[in-house]
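Course exercise 7: structure representation. Students receive a sequence record and must write out the corresponding structure in token form. The form below is the worked example handed out in class, using EamA domain-containing protein (312 residues). Read each field label carefully; the graders check that inputs and outputs are placed in the correct fields and that the protein name is recorded exactly as given.

STUDENT ID: A-19
EXERCISE PROTEIN: EamA domain-containing protein
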Amino acid sequence: MLQPRRLTTLSANLICMASMLVWAAGLPAAELLIGPLTPLPLTALRMLTALALLLPLWLALEGMQSLRRASWTRGLFVGGIGFGLGAYLLVSAQSLTDPITIAVITAAMPVIGIALECLLDGRRLSGALILGVALSLCGGLISYGGKLGAGGFGLGALMAVVSVVCYTWGSRETVKSFPDLSPLGRATVTLAGATAVTTLAAGLQVSLGGPSPDWSAIGTPQIVALLIYGIGALAVSQVLWIISVGHLGIGVASLHGNATPFYVMVFLVMLGGSWSWTQALAAAIVVLGVLVAQGRMPRRSTETIRRDNPMS
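STUDENT ANSWER:
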């Protein structure tokens, strides 16, 4: 298993890019699932699918002792709010708006991540860091055409904003709260918490007469989409993401998210779609922003992050 202490900065950035690439595959998969499955049951099924892979894998690779020393109560809190509530709000937002609106709003994640580091970790803002964030945001807005979707900024967009805040906070807390666990353990503990919260909430919703899934509309395409959405875009992506956040910090790692539209385009090209040089240029600007933000970051800030993140 990959050990974070041995990672170079280049390796951590490549892992973060891979996380975003795998996560991007889940966006079109979600479109097939929204409708037959309402947001809360869909979120719970997605979490259950991811946990069904990660928990046995963690047990097989690291043994029962690793599971016993984990703080499951803390995992319930961090996972329930950061990833359970965050994922539910994101699915709800996408059901009320469109993928473009969601993508535009998630472009603000680096701002939220760096704000958390400045407030909670003592990171100092520098010209290079500000420039790196600005370049990342610029690349993201170029990718998305610089506009919200047809729905504009309404309830769905507000849900997306809160979702991004939850996810960014949850990612940081996952690294901070479990310094003695491996990235696989960290991801599994918090996803277990998210699974417990969303499954309980979905069960209560159905038992109280709320909307239930339309199981008759679930066929092979939806099952395949759920596997992509749960295993690829959550289980695999989350482990890679936690590895990169542990090494880079949430602020820098979140800069990579603005290259997601380029990755989506790559998938579409593989399926017969057309190449967009605008998307390629936007991705290059995002990469430049990541390099600028890291290459000239003040030494004290980096040391502070490493001291607060023993596993990095």
